[in-house]
Amino acid sequence: MIRPQTNACRTAIDLSGIWRVRFDPDDCGGRDGWSAGIGTADTHAIAIPGSWNEQLAEAGYMNYVGAAWLETEVFIAPALPGVRRVLHFASVDYHADVWLGGRHLGTSGAAMLPFAFDVTDVVRPGATARLVVRVTNVLPADGPTQGITRSTYVEEGRPRDEYLPAVRFDFFPFGGINRPVHLVSMPAQAITAYRAVATMTAVTLHVEAPEGMRVGARLVGHGQSVEAAGLATNGRATLTLAPDTPRCWSPDDPALYDLAIDLLDAQETLVDRVEQRIGFREIRVEGSQLLLNGAPITLRGFGKHEDSPIHGRGLNLPQLVKDFALLKWTGANSVRTSHYPYAEEFYDMADAAGVLVIDEVFSINLDFRRVDDAVLASHKAAVEQLIARDANRTCVIAWSLANEPGYLAEPEYRERSGTYWQALFAHARALDPTRPMTHANVGYAGNDDPAFAEADIVTINRYHGWYSEPAQLDRARAALVADFDKLAAHGKPIFVAEFGADALAGQHATYDQLFTEEYQARFIETYWDAITAHPAVIGGHVWNFADFRTAQHGRRVVHNLKGVFTRTREPKMAAWAVKRLWTGR
Ligand code: GCB
User: Fold this and answer.
1) How far is the CA of 544 from the centre of ligand 1 (A)?
2) 200 C-alpha vs ligand 1 centroid, how far in Å?
3) Which residue's C-alpha comes closest to atom 1 of ligand 1?
4) 407: Cβ below 6 Å to ligand 1?
5) Tens digit of pLDDT for each residue in 255-271?
6) Residues 6 or more apart from 35 whose CB is under 8 A from it?
7) I need a labelling partner for 294 at 20 to 30 A (CA). Which of 73, 92, 176, 330 fits?
8) 548 lines ligand 1 (CB under 6 A)
9) Whose CA is nearest to atom 5 of ligand 1?
10) Is 202:241 a contact under the CB 8 Å cutoff?
11) Mean pLDDT score across all residues of the chain
Protein backbone atom coordinates (compact mmCIF):
# COMPACT_ATOMS: atom_id res chain seq x y z
CA MET A 1 0.00 0.00 0.00
CA ILE A 2 1.67 3.18 -1.16
CA ARG A 3 1.52 6.12 1.18
CA PRO A 4 -0.85 8.99 0.19
CA GLN A 5 1.03 11.69 -1.68
CA THR A 6 0.45 14.64 -3.96
CA ASN A 7 2.64 14.82 -7.06
CA ALA A 8 2.32 15.10 -10.86
CA CYS A 9 -0.01 12.04 -10.95
CA ARG A 10 -1.60 11.67 -7.52
CA THR A 11 -3.57 13.97 -5.23
CA ALA A 12 -4.11 13.28 -1.53
CA ILE A 13 -6.75 15.27 0.32
CA ASP A 14 -6.37 15.27 4.09
CA LEU A 15 -9.72 14.69 5.80
CA SER A 16 -8.44 15.84 9.22
CA GLY A 17 -10.72 18.25 11.04
CA ILE A 18 -13.63 18.33 13.44
CA TRP A 19 -15.74 15.18 12.97
CA ARG A 20 -18.66 13.94 15.10
CA VAL A 21 -18.71 10.92 17.39
CA ARG A 22 -21.45 8.86 19.03
CA PHE A 23 -20.48 6.30 21.64
CA ASP A 24 -22.09 2.88 21.51
CA PRO A 25 -21.54 1.11 24.84
CA ASP A 26 -24.54 -1.21 24.22
CA ASP A 27 -23.43 -2.06 20.69
CA CYS A 28 -26.74 -1.07 19.14
CA GLY A 29 -25.38 1.19 16.35
CA GLY A 30 -25.30 -1.63 13.80
CA ARG A 31 -28.91 -2.61 14.46
CA ASP A 32 -30.07 1.02 14.56
CA GLY A 33 -28.56 1.95 11.21
CA TRP A 34 -25.80 4.30 12.36
CA SER A 35 -23.71 3.20 9.39
CA ALA A 36 -25.82 5.52 7.23
CA GLY A 37 -25.35 8.41 9.67
CA ILE A 38 -25.03 8.77 13.43
CA GLY A 39 -27.82 11.34 13.77
CA THR A 40 -27.71 14.32 16.09
CA ALA A 41 -28.68 12.90 19.49
CA ASP A 42 -25.82 12.14 21.89
CA THR A 43 -23.14 13.19 19.46
CA HIS A 44 -20.00 15.15 20.27
CA ALA A 45 -17.52 17.11 18.21
CA ILE A 46 -14.14 15.38 18.02
CA ALA A 47 -10.87 16.46 16.41
CA ILE A 48 -9.35 13.94 14.00
CA PRO A 49 -6.63 12.82 14.29
CA GLY A 50 -7.02 12.57 18.05
CA SER A 51 -8.07 10.15 20.79
CA TRP A 52 -11.48 10.57 22.36
CA ASN A 53 -10.30 10.12 25.95
CA GLU A 54 -8.88 13.46 27.04
CA GLN A 55 -10.86 15.43 24.43
CA LEU A 56 -14.14 14.11 25.82
CA ALA A 57 -13.21 13.49 29.47
CA GLU A 58 -15.85 15.96 30.73
CA ALA A 59 -18.54 14.13 28.75
CA GLY A 60 -17.55 10.94 30.62
CA TYR A 61 -15.31 9.18 28.06
CA MET A 62 -11.86 9.39 29.70
CA ASN A 63 -11.73 5.65 30.39
CA TYR A 64 -14.10 4.51 27.65
CA VAL A 65 -13.36 1.15 26.10
CA GLY A 66 -15.82 -0.04 23.51
CA ALA A 67 -17.34 0.97 20.19
CA ALA A 68 -17.79 4.51 18.93
CA TRP A 69 -19.09 5.73 15.58
CA LEU A 70 -17.34 8.69 13.96
CA GLU A 71 -18.53 10.57 10.89
CA THR A 72 -17.69 13.38 8.54
CA GLU A 73 -18.71 14.53 5.05
CA VAL A 74 -16.38 14.17 2.10
CA PHE A 75 -16.77 16.19 -1.09
CA ILE A 76 -15.74 14.14 -4.10
CA ALA A 77 -14.39 16.55 -6.73
CA PRO A 78 -15.18 15.81 -10.39
CA ALA A 79 -12.31 13.97 -12.09
CA LEU A 80 -11.12 12.94 -15.53
CA PRO A 81 -12.02 9.43 -16.69
CA GLY A 82 -9.56 6.77 -15.53
CA VAL A 83 -8.99 8.26 -12.11
CA ARG A 84 -9.29 5.92 -9.14
CA ARG A 85 -10.23 7.08 -5.66
CA VAL A 86 -8.81 5.42 -2.61
CA LEU A 87 -9.71 6.10 0.99
CA HIS A 88 -6.59 5.65 3.12
CA PHE A 89 -6.50 5.41 6.91
CA ALA A 90 -3.03 5.73 8.43
CA SER A 91 -4.43 3.75 11.40
CA VAL A 92 -7.23 3.60 13.95
CA ASP A 93 -7.04 2.34 17.53
CA TYR A 94 -7.54 -0.49 17.28
CA HIS A 95 -10.12 -1.77 14.81
CA ALA A 96 -12.47 -0.13 12.28
CA ASP A 97 -15.44 -0.86 10.03
CA VAL A 98 -15.95 1.77 7.36
CA TRP A 99 -18.99 2.93 5.33
CA LEU A 100 -19.12 5.59 2.63
CA GLY A 101 -22.52 6.84 1.50
CA GLY A 102 -24.05 3.93 3.44
CA ARG A 103 -21.97 1.29 1.59
CA HIS A 104 -19.79 -0.97 3.70
CA LEU A 105 -16.20 -0.72 2.45
CA GLY A 106 -14.56 -3.22 4.77
CA THR A 107 -12.52 -3.45 7.95
CA SER A 108 -9.05 -2.50 9.11
CA GLY A 109 -6.08 -4.88 9.21
CA ALA A 110 -3.44 -5.16 11.93
CA ALA A 111 -3.81 -2.55 14.67
CA MET A 112 -1.64 0.60 14.46
CA LEU A 113 -1.05 0.12 10.72
CA PRO A 114 -2.63 1.58 7.57
CA PHE A 115 -5.52 0.21 5.54
CA ALA A 116 -7.25 1.47 2.41
CA PHE A 117 -10.32 0.91 0.23
CA ASP A 118 -10.86 1.55 -3.46
CA VAL A 119 -13.99 3.73 -3.52
CA THR A 120 -14.04 4.58 -7.22
CA ASP A 121 -17.32 2.78 -7.83
CA VAL A 122 -18.85 3.91 -4.56
CA VAL A 123 -18.62 7.67 -4.92
CA ARG A 124 -20.46 10.09 -7.19
CA PRO A 125 -18.04 12.78 -8.42
CA GLY A 126 -19.28 16.31 -7.78
CA ALA A 127 -21.27 15.27 -4.69
CA THR A 128 -20.77 14.97 -0.96
CA ALA A 129 -20.73 11.55 0.67
CA ARG A 130 -21.01 10.68 4.34
CA LEU A 131 -18.08 8.76 5.79
CA VAL A 132 -18.90 6.70 8.88
CA VAL A 133 -16.28 4.76 10.83
CA ARG A 134 -17.10 2.38 13.68
CA VAL A 135 -14.01 2.23 15.86
CA THR A 136 -13.43 -0.04 18.81
CA ASN A 137 -10.50 0.10 21.20
CA VAL A 138 -11.21 -3.44 22.42
CA LEU A 139 -8.39 -5.77 21.40
CA PRO A 140 -9.32 -9.28 20.23
CA ALA A 141 -8.16 -12.23 22.36
CA ASP A 142 -6.25 -13.73 19.43
CA GLY A 143 -4.25 -10.67 18.37
CA PRO A 144 -0.47 -10.35 18.77
CA THR A 145 -1.30 -8.20 21.81
CA GLN A 146 -4.05 -10.32 23.34
CA GLY A 147 -7.05 -8.41 24.59
CA ILE A 148 -7.92 -8.45 28.25
CA THR A 149 -11.10 -7.44 30.05
CA ARG A 150 -12.21 -7.27 33.66
CA SER A 151 -13.63 -10.76 33.35
CA THR A 152 -10.58 -12.30 31.67
CA TYR A 153 -8.42 -11.04 34.52
CA VAL A 154 -10.28 -13.50 36.69
CA GLU A 155 -10.05 -16.30 34.10
CA GLU A 156 -6.33 -15.66 33.81
CA GLY A 157 -6.01 -16.27 37.54
CA ARG A 158 -4.53 -12.83 38.15
CA PRO A 159 -4.55 -11.83 41.80
CA ARG A 160 -6.80 -8.81 41.29
CA ASP A 161 -8.64 -6.56 38.91
CA GLU A 162 -6.21 -3.66 39.18
CA TYR A 163 -6.31 -1.51 36.03
CA LEU A 164 -8.82 1.02 34.73
CA PRO A 165 -9.26 0.61 31.81
CA ALA A 166 -8.31 -3.09 31.82
CA VAL A 167 -5.06 -3.50 29.89
CA ARG A 168 -2.23 -5.98 29.47
CA PHE A 169 0.33 -3.20 29.04
CA ASP A 170 1.70 -0.14 30.83
CA PHE A 171 0.27 2.65 28.69
CA PHE A 172 -3.15 4.12 28.11
CA PRO A 173 -5.51 2.38 25.63
CA PHE A 174 -6.42 5.58 23.79
CA GLY A 175 -9.27 5.07 21.33
CA GLY A 176 -10.19 6.77 18.09
CA ILE A 177 -8.86 7.76 14.71
CA ASN A 178 -5.36 8.68 15.81
CA ARG A 179 -3.71 9.25 12.44
CA PRO A 180 -4.81 11.10 9.30
CA VAL A 181 -7.39 9.88 6.80
CA HIS A 182 -6.83 10.77 3.12
CA LEU A 183 -8.90 10.60 -0.02
CA VAL A 184 -6.42 9.82 -2.78
CA SER A 185 -7.01 10.33 -6.49
CA MET A 186 -4.65 8.24 -8.59
CA PRO A 187 -4.44 6.76 -12.07
CA ALA A 188 -6.21 3.47 -12.80
CA GLN A 189 -2.98 2.11 -14.24
CA ALA A 190 -0.58 2.54 -11.38
CA ILE A 191 2.49 1.49 -9.51
CA THR A 192 0.98 -0.81 -6.89
CA ALA A 193 3.98 -1.45 -4.61
CA TYR A 194 7.74 -1.16 -4.54
CA ARG A 195 10.65 -2.27 -2.43
CA ALA A 196 13.84 -0.21 -2.34
CA VAL A 197 16.89 -2.05 -1.04
CA ALA A 198 19.78 0.31 -0.27
CA THR A 199 23.44 -0.54 0.27
CA MET A 200 26.35 1.89 0.62
CA THR A 201 26.72 2.06 -3.15
CA ALA A 202 23.36 1.39 -4.82
CA VAL A 203 19.58 1.36 -4.46
CA THR A 204 17.87 -1.64 -6.06
CA LEU A 205 14.19 -1.15 -6.80
CA HIS A 206 11.61 -3.88 -7.25
CA VAL A 207 8.55 -2.15 -8.67
CA GLU A 208 5.15 -3.79 -9.12
CA ALA A 209 3.55 -2.33 -12.23
CA PRO A 210 1.11 -3.28 -15.02
CA GLU A 211 2.50 -5.88 -17.41
CA GLY A 212 4.60 -4.54 -20.28
CA MET A 213 4.60 -0.93 -19.13
CA ARG A 214 7.79 1.06 -18.80
CA VAL A 215 9.12 1.95 -15.37
CA GLY A 216 11.66 4.73 -14.90
CA ALA A 217 13.43 5.81 -11.75
CA ARG A 218 15.48 8.87 -10.90
CA LEU A 219 17.60 9.59 -7.86
CA VAL A 220 18.68 13.18 -7.27
CA GLY A 221 20.70 14.78 -4.52
CA HIS A 222 24.05 16.11 -3.37
CA GLY A 223 24.96 17.33 -6.84
CA GLN A 224 24.27 13.94 -8.43
CA SER A 225 21.50 12.53 -10.57
CA VAL A 226 21.13 8.96 -11.86
CA GLU A 227 18.38 7.28 -13.83
CA ALA A 228 17.37 3.75 -14.77
CA ALA A 229 14.47 2.29 -16.75
CA GLY A 230 13.01 -1.07 -17.67
CA LEU A 231 9.84 -2.93 -18.66
CA ALA A 232 7.52 -4.60 -16.18
CA THR A 233 7.58 -8.34 -16.85
CA ASN A 234 5.59 -10.78 -14.75
CA GLY A 235 4.19 -7.69 -13.04
CA ARG A 236 7.54 -6.41 -11.85
CA ALA A 237 10.51 -4.29 -12.95
CA THR A 238 13.88 -4.38 -11.22
CA LEU A 239 16.10 -1.33 -11.54
CA THR A 240 19.42 -0.35 -9.99
CA LEU A 241 20.47 3.20 -9.25
CA ALA A 242 24.16 3.68 -8.48
CA PRO A 243 25.64 7.17 -8.44
CA ASP A 244 29.45 7.35 -8.94
CA THR A 245 30.19 8.60 -5.45
CA PRO A 246 27.14 8.12 -3.24
CA ARG A 247 27.15 10.00 0.04
CA CYS A 248 26.28 7.54 2.80
CA TRP A 249 23.51 8.19 5.31
CA SER A 250 24.37 8.08 9.03
CA PRO A 251 23.43 9.85 12.27
CA ASP A 252 26.38 12.22 11.70
CA ASP A 253 25.46 12.92 8.09
CA PRO A 254 21.82 12.01 7.31
CA ALA A 255 22.27 12.47 3.56
CA LEU A 256 19.01 11.70 1.72
CA TYR A 257 18.32 11.58 -1.99
CA ASP A 258 15.01 12.29 -3.74
CA LEU A 259 13.72 9.15 -5.42
CA ALA A 260 10.96 9.31 -8.07
CA ILE A 261 9.54 6.18 -9.71
CA ASP A 262 7.58 6.78 -12.91
CA LEU A 263 5.20 4.61 -14.88
CA LEU A 264 5.12 5.40 -18.62
CA ASP A 265 2.83 4.20 -21.41
CA ALA A 266 3.85 3.09 -24.90
CA GLN A 267 3.98 6.74 -26.03
CA GLU A 268 6.35 7.52 -23.13
CA THR A 269 3.65 9.60 -21.46
CA LEU A 270 3.85 9.82 -17.70
CA VAL A 271 1.00 7.77 -16.19
CA ASP A 272 1.90 7.46 -12.51
CA ARG A 273 4.60 8.58 -10.12
CA VAL A 274 5.57 7.81 -6.54
CA GLU A 275 8.18 9.67 -4.56
CA GLN A 276 10.15 9.21 -1.37
CA ARG A 277 13.47 10.21 0.20
CA ILE A 278 16.11 7.54 0.65
CA GLY A 279 19.72 7.15 1.81
CA PHE A 280 22.64 4.81 1.11
CA ARG A 281 23.53 2.73 4.16
CA GLU A 282 24.19 -0.80 5.35
CA ILE A 283 23.36 -2.36 8.66
CA ARG A 284 24.67 -5.74 9.75
CA VAL A 285 25.54 -7.84 12.76
CA GLU A 286 29.02 -9.32 12.99
CA GLY A 287 29.95 -11.35 16.07
CA SER A 288 28.85 -9.25 19.02
CA GLN A 289 28.90 -5.96 17.12
CA LEU A 290 26.38 -3.95 15.16
CA LEU A 291 27.93 -2.37 12.09
CA LEU A 292 26.54 0.72 10.36
CA ASN A 293 28.26 1.31 7.03
CA GLY A 294 30.92 -1.20 8.07
CA ALA A 295 31.85 0.50 11.37
CA PRO A 296 30.72 -0.54 14.88
CA ILE A 297 28.01 1.68 16.32
CA THR A 298 26.85 2.18 19.91
CA LEU A 299 23.10 2.78 20.15
CA ARG A 300 22.18 5.53 22.61
CA GLY A 301 18.64 6.75 22.88
CA PHE A 302 15.21 6.06 24.25
CA GLY A 303 12.07 4.02 24.14
CA LYS A 304 9.20 6.41 23.42
CA HIS A 305 5.43 6.50 23.19
CA GLU A 306 2.95 8.31 21.01
CA ASP A 307 1.30 10.20 23.85
CA SER A 308 0.53 13.83 24.52
CA PRO A 309 -1.87 15.88 26.59
CA ILE A 310 -5.35 16.16 25.01
CA HIS A 311 -4.29 14.52 21.72
CA GLY A 312 -3.77 11.19 23.51
CA ARG A 313 -2.20 8.93 20.88
CA GLY A 314 -3.41 11.32 18.13
CA LEU A 315 -0.75 12.62 15.78
CA ASN A 316 0.70 15.80 17.29
CA LEU A 317 3.03 17.35 14.73
CA PRO A 318 4.38 20.25 16.85
CA GLN A 319 5.30 17.76 19.57
CA LEU A 320 6.92 15.46 17.00
CA VAL A 321 9.15 18.30 15.79
CA LYS A 322 9.99 19.23 19.38
CA ASP A 323 10.83 15.62 20.24
CA PHE A 324 13.39 15.39 17.46
CA ALA A 325 14.97 18.65 18.64
CA LEU A 326 15.14 17.18 22.16
CA LEU A 327 16.55 13.87 20.91
CA LYS A 328 19.34 15.81 19.19
CA TRP A 329 19.83 17.97 22.31
CA THR A 330 20.46 14.85 24.42
CA GLY A 331 22.86 13.42 21.84
CA ALA A 332 20.65 10.37 21.21
CA ASN A 333 21.22 8.51 17.94
CA SER A 334 18.37 5.97 18.10
CA VAL A 335 14.81 5.20 19.22
CA ARG A 336 12.70 2.04 19.56
CA THR A 337 9.08 2.52 18.52
CA SER A 338 7.93 0.94 21.77
CA HIS A 339 5.48 -0.75 21.63
CA TYR A 340 3.87 -0.38 18.21
CA PRO A 341 4.50 1.10 14.76
CA TYR A 342 4.42 4.91 14.91
CA ALA A 343 2.86 7.40 12.49
CA GLU A 344 4.73 7.66 9.18
CA GLU A 345 5.61 11.29 9.95
CA PHE A 346 7.84 9.97 12.75
CA TYR A 347 9.93 8.01 10.22
CA ASP A 348 10.11 11.07 7.92
CA MET A 349 11.65 12.98 10.81
CA ALA A 350 13.99 10.12 11.73
CA ASP A 351 15.20 9.74 8.13
CA ALA A 352 15.90 13.46 7.93
CA ALA A 353 17.50 13.75 11.37
CA GLY A 354 19.65 10.61 11.13
CA VAL A 355 17.94 8.83 14.01
CA LEU A 356 18.23 5.03 13.83
CA VAL A 357 14.94 3.23 14.48
CA ILE A 358 14.23 -0.19 15.92
CA ASP A 359 10.73 -0.70 14.54
CA GLU A 360 8.48 -2.70 16.87
CA VAL A 361 5.45 -4.83 16.08
CA PHE A 362 2.42 -4.26 18.35
CA SER A 363 2.85 -7.42 20.44
CA ILE A 364 3.06 -6.95 24.17
CA ASN A 365 3.27 -9.47 27.02
CA LEU A 366 2.18 -12.42 24.89
CA ASP A 367 0.73 -14.94 27.36
CA PHE A 368 1.65 -18.44 26.20
CA ARG A 369 -1.11 -20.07 28.23
CA ARG A 370 -3.40 -18.55 25.60
CA VAL A 371 -1.31 -18.69 22.46
CA ASP A 372 -2.75 -20.77 19.61
CA ASP A 373 -2.52 -20.90 15.81
CA ALA A 374 -4.81 -17.88 15.51
CA VAL A 375 -2.43 -15.75 17.58
CA LEU A 376 0.55 -16.84 15.48
CA ALA A 377 -1.38 -16.07 12.27
CA SER A 378 -2.33 -12.58 13.43
CA HIS A 379 1.21 -11.94 14.69
CA LYS A 380 2.59 -12.96 11.28
CA ALA A 381 0.08 -10.68 9.56
CA ALA A 382 1.11 -7.75 11.77
CA VAL A 383 4.79 -8.37 10.94
CA GLU A 384 3.93 -8.55 7.26
CA GLN A 385 1.96 -5.28 7.29
CA LEU A 386 4.68 -3.50 9.28
CA ILE A 387 7.44 -4.60 6.91
CA ALA A 388 5.28 -3.69 3.91
CA ARG A 389 4.86 -0.17 5.30
CA ASP A 390 8.39 0.52 6.55
CA ALA A 391 10.87 -1.62 4.61
CA ASN A 392 11.82 1.31 2.35
CA ARG A 393 12.82 3.44 5.32
CA THR A 394 16.48 4.35 5.62
CA CYS A 395 16.17 4.99 9.37
CA VAL A 396 14.82 1.50 10.18
CA ILE A 397 17.82 -0.62 11.16
CA ALA A 398 16.08 -3.55 12.88
CA TRP A 399 12.67 -5.14 13.48
CA SER A 400 11.55 -5.93 17.01
CA LEU A 401 8.95 -8.68 16.77
CA ALA A 402 7.59 -8.53 20.34
CA ASN A 403 7.94 -6.83 23.70
CA GLU A 404 8.23 -8.93 26.84
CA PRO A 405 6.48 -12.20 25.95
CA GLY A 406 6.32 -14.64 28.87
CA TYR A 407 5.83 -11.70 31.23
CA LEU A 408 3.90 -13.78 33.75
CA ALA A 409 6.75 -16.31 33.96
CA GLU A 410 4.18 -18.90 32.86
CA PRO A 411 5.86 -22.32 32.38
CA GLU A 412 4.10 -22.61 29.01
CA TYR A 413 6.43 -19.90 27.70
CA ARG A 414 9.50 -22.05 28.09
CA GLU A 415 7.67 -25.21 27.01
CA ARG A 416 5.98 -23.91 23.88
CA SER A 417 7.43 -20.70 22.57
CA GLY A 418 10.45 -22.18 20.73
CA THR A 419 8.49 -23.33 17.67
CA TYR A 420 6.42 -20.14 17.74
CA TRP A 421 9.57 -17.98 17.48
CA GLN A 422 11.07 -20.21 14.78
CA ALA A 423 7.96 -19.71 12.66
CA LEU A 424 7.67 -15.98 13.34
CA PHE A 425 11.33 -15.05 12.81
CA ALA A 426 11.52 -17.18 9.65
CA HIS A 427 8.43 -15.41 8.31
CA ALA A 428 9.93 -11.99 9.05
CA ARG A 429 13.32 -12.91 7.53
CA ALA A 430 11.69 -14.09 4.33
CA LEU A 431 9.97 -10.70 4.08
CA ASP A 432 13.13 -8.71 4.80
CA PRO A 433 16.47 -10.51 4.68
CA THR A 434 18.37 -7.20 4.94
CA ARG A 435 17.79 -6.17 8.56
CA PRO A 436 18.56 -7.76 11.93
CA MET A 437 15.62 -9.17 13.90
CA THR A 438 15.13 -9.02 17.64
CA HIS A 439 12.58 -8.99 20.46
CA ALA A 440 12.66 -7.32 23.89
CA ASN A 441 13.12 -9.87 26.69
CA VAL A 442 11.69 -9.48 30.19
CA GLY A 443 13.78 -10.75 33.11
CA TYR A 444 11.05 -13.29 34.04
CA ALA A 445 11.60 -15.05 30.70
CA GLY A 446 15.23 -15.64 31.67
CA ASN A 447 18.61 -15.01 30.09
CA ASP A 448 18.00 -18.21 28.11
CA ASP A 449 14.69 -16.95 26.65
CA PRO A 450 13.76 -19.33 23.78
CA ALA A 451 13.41 -16.32 21.41
CA PHE A 452 17.15 -15.55 21.74
CA ALA A 453 17.94 -18.61 19.63
CA GLU A 454 16.18 -16.95 16.67
CA ALA A 455 17.15 -13.30 17.22
CA ASP A 456 20.17 -11.58 15.66
CA ILE A 457 20.47 -9.18 18.61
CA VAL A 458 19.86 -10.27 22.21
CA THR A 459 17.67 -7.44 23.53
CA ILE A 460 16.74 -7.09 27.21
CA ASN A 461 14.60 -4.78 29.37
CA ARG A 462 16.01 -4.55 32.93
CA TYR A 463 14.93 -2.73 36.10
CA HIS A 464 17.46 -3.82 38.76
CA GLY A 465 17.56 -0.87 41.15
CA TRP A 466 13.88 -0.14 40.60
CA TYR A 467 11.49 -3.11 40.72
CA SER A 468 14.19 -5.18 42.46
CA GLU A 469 17.16 -4.03 44.54
CA PRO A 470 15.30 -0.70 45.00
CA ALA A 471 17.55 2.31 45.69
CA GLN A 472 20.63 0.05 45.84
CA LEU A 473 22.69 0.89 42.81
CA ASP A 474 25.70 -1.25 43.72
CA ARG A 475 23.55 -4.37 43.89
CA ALA A 476 21.66 -3.27 40.76
CA ARG A 477 24.86 -2.85 38.79
CA ALA A 478 26.17 -6.25 39.92
CA ALA A 479 22.90 -7.92 38.85
CA LEU A 480 23.00 -6.19 35.46
CA VAL A 481 26.59 -7.21 34.81
CA ALA A 482 25.74 -10.78 35.86
CA ASP A 483 22.96 -10.72 33.22
CA PHE A 484 25.41 -9.46 30.57
CA ASP A 485 27.90 -12.20 31.40
CA LYS A 486 25.23 -14.89 31.02
CA LEU A 487 23.79 -13.36 27.86
CA ALA A 488 27.24 -13.15 26.27
CA ALA A 489 27.09 -16.96 25.93
CA HIS A 490 24.65 -16.46 23.00
CA GLY A 491 27.57 -15.01 21.00
CA LYS A 492 25.41 -12.19 19.69
CA PRO A 493 25.31 -8.43 20.34
CA ILE A 494 23.47 -7.54 23.57
CA PHE A 495 21.24 -4.48 23.63
CA VAL A 496 19.47 -2.96 26.66
CA ALA A 497 16.19 -1.69 25.19
CA GLU A 498 14.84 -0.48 28.55
CA PHE A 499 16.35 0.70 31.80
CA GLY A 500 14.99 3.52 33.90
CA ALA A 501 13.54 4.85 37.14
CA ASP A 502 10.45 6.96 37.82
CA ALA A 503 11.06 10.53 38.99
CA LEU A 504 8.43 13.03 39.95
CA ALA A 505 9.73 16.34 38.61
CA GLY A 506 10.58 18.52 41.62
CA GLN A 507 11.12 15.61 44.05
CA HIS A 508 14.64 15.73 45.52
CA ALA A 509 16.83 14.01 48.12
CA THR A 510 20.48 14.01 49.20
CA TYR A 511 20.45 10.18 49.41
CA ASP A 512 19.25 7.43 47.05
CA GLN A 513 15.47 7.69 47.17
CA LEU A 514 13.05 6.26 44.61
CA PHE A 515 11.03 8.85 42.64
CA THR A 516 13.59 11.65 43.06
CA GLU A 517 15.28 13.38 40.15
CA GLU A 518 18.70 12.63 41.68
CA TYR A 519 18.07 8.89 41.87
CA GLN A 520 16.78 8.73 38.30
CA ALA A 521 19.92 10.50 37.07
CA ARG A 522 22.26 8.29 39.12
CA PHE A 523 20.40 5.16 38.01
CA ILE A 524 20.92 6.06 34.34
CA GLU A 525 24.59 6.96 34.90
CA THR A 526 25.22 3.64 36.66
CA TYR A 527 23.59 1.62 33.87
CA TRP A 528 25.38 3.58 31.15
CA ASP A 529 28.72 2.94 32.78
CA ALA A 530 28.02 -0.83 32.88
CA ILE A 531 26.66 -0.82 29.30
CA THR A 532 29.71 0.90 27.83
CA ALA A 533 32.14 -1.21 29.89
CA HIS A 534 30.92 -4.57 28.53
CA PRO A 535 32.43 -5.69 25.22
CA ALA A 536 29.30 -7.53 24.01
CA VAL A 537 26.83 -4.71 24.73
CA ILE A 538 26.03 -2.47 21.78
CA GLY A 539 24.20 0.25 23.70
CA GLY A 540 21.07 1.12 25.58
CA HIS A 541 17.78 2.98 25.44
CA VAL A 542 16.59 4.82 28.52
CA TRP A 543 12.99 4.07 29.46
CA ASN A 544 11.45 6.55 28.71
CA PHE A 545 11.96 9.67 26.66
CA ALA A 546 9.00 11.42 28.37
CA ASP A 547 6.42 10.72 31.06
CA PHE A 548 3.31 9.12 29.57
CA ARG A 549 -0.24 8.38 30.65
CA THR A 550 -1.02 4.87 31.85
CA ALA A 551 -4.20 3.10 32.83
CA GLN A 552 -5.16 3.91 36.44
CA HIS A 553 -3.24 1.62 38.72
CA GLY A 554 -1.87 1.73 42.27
CA ARG A 555 1.75 1.74 41.12
CA ARG A 556 1.37 4.75 38.82
CA VAL A 557 0.77 8.41 39.73
CA VAL A 558 -1.34 9.26 36.65
CA HIS A 559 1.72 8.80 34.45
CA ASN A 560 4.58 6.40 34.13
CA LEU A 561 7.22 8.87 35.39
CA LYS A 562 10.29 7.25 33.86
CA GLY A 563 10.60 10.05 31.30
CA VAL A 564 13.76 12.12 31.36
CA PHE A 565 11.36 14.83 30.12
CA THR A 566 7.95 15.47 31.65
CA ARG A 567 4.86 14.80 29.57
CA THR A 568 4.97 18.46 28.50
CA ARG A 569 8.69 18.10 27.64
CA GLU A 570 10.42 19.99 30.46
CA PRO A 571 13.78 18.36 31.31
CA LYS A 572 14.35 16.56 34.61
CA MET A 573 17.89 16.24 36.02
CA ALA A 574 18.19 12.96 34.12
CA ALA A 575 17.83 14.77 30.78
CA TRP A 576 20.90 16.85 31.62
CA ALA A 577 22.67 13.69 32.82
CA VAL A 578 22.13 11.83 29.51
CA LYS A 579 23.15 14.93 27.59
CA ARG A 580 26.46 14.95 29.52
CA LEU A 581 26.95 11.22 28.93
CA TRP A 582 26.12 11.33 25.24
CA THR A 583 27.55 14.69 24.14
CA GLY A 584 30.29 15.24 26.76
CA ARG A 585 28.73 18.67 27.49
C1 GCB B 1 8.60 -2.65 30.85
C2 GCB B 1 7.67 -2.46 29.71
C3 GCB B 1 7.21 -1.02 29.57
C4 GCB B 1 6.89 -0.44 30.95
C5 GCB B 1 8.14 -0.47 31.79
C6 GCB B 1 7.92 0.07 33.22
O7 GCB B 1 9.34 -3.58 30.95
O8 GCB B 1 8.21 -2.91 28.48
O9 GCB B 1 6.10 -1.00 28.72
O10 GCB B 1 6.36 0.83 30.87
O11 GCB B 1 8.60 -1.78 31.90
O12 GCB B 1 8.10 1.26 33.44
O13 GCB B 1 7.56 -0.73 34.08
Assistant:
1) 9
2) 36
3) 461
4) no
5) 999 999 999 999 999 99
6) 29, 69, 97, 99, 102, 104, 132, 134
7) 330
8) no
9) 170
10) yes
11) 97
